[in-house]
Amino acid sequence: MKNVRLVVLLLVAASLPGLVSANEDRGSSNSVFGPLNPLLADGAAALELGRADEGIRLTLEGLKLPNAVHETAAAHANLCGGYAMLQRWDEALAHCNTSISLDPNNWRAFNNRAAVFTARGLYDQAVADVEAGLKLAPQSHTLHKTLEVIHDNERIARRHARSGSRA
Of 14, 23, 114, 153, whose CA is between 20 and 30 Å from 145? Predict the structure, then answer.
């Protein structure tokens, strides 16, 4: 399962850019104007650079300040990604769920949660999240890649289960 986690981390990292944008075009996620909260922006930048601990710390500090609902939701999606980078799946899942409950139109939060589900071997739930994300952003290369990875990991897990049952 080590390969599954590595791929999951790559998927989460790929979905981080632009998550904290308060003004992003939710369908394409191409227009990024930046958040109103500099701590959230710095947290997102640290996460994009792979500095999960720093990104989480800055994002949590930024959430202590008043934020727009969309920006709060994006920050929770970033926290999901950061905790997933650290393989802290329960914390990641809680933040993904919060993000989606605050803004069900952020396809990146669905992608992050799909990555967490994949790491846990919950492939049906991961596929459902990718499909929800694709309804929001049908052209997203990240989501299409995530779907491929989920199916690949599911095949690997089945193969491992079959070879383990023969031992």
Answer: 23
**Other Cβ atoms within 10 Å of 137 Cβ, number:** 22
Asked whether the beta carbons of 80 and 99 are under 8 A apart, the reply is: yes
Q: How far is CA 140 from the centre of its chain?
A: 14
What is the DSSP code string of 61-77? HHTTS---HHHHHHHHH
- Specify the CATH architecture of the domain 2-166: Alpha Horseshoe (1.25)
* 77 contacts 46 by C-beta, under 8 angstroms: no
Token pair for 40: 């959230």
Helices (H), the chain: 2-15, 38-48, 52-62, 69-85, 89-102, 107-119, 123-136, 141-166
Backbone angles phi, psi at 97, to 5 degrees: -60, -40
Return the C-alpha torsion angle 159, 129, 34, 6, nearest 10: -10
In terms of Cα–Cα distance, which of 100, 93, 82 is closest to 15?
A: 82
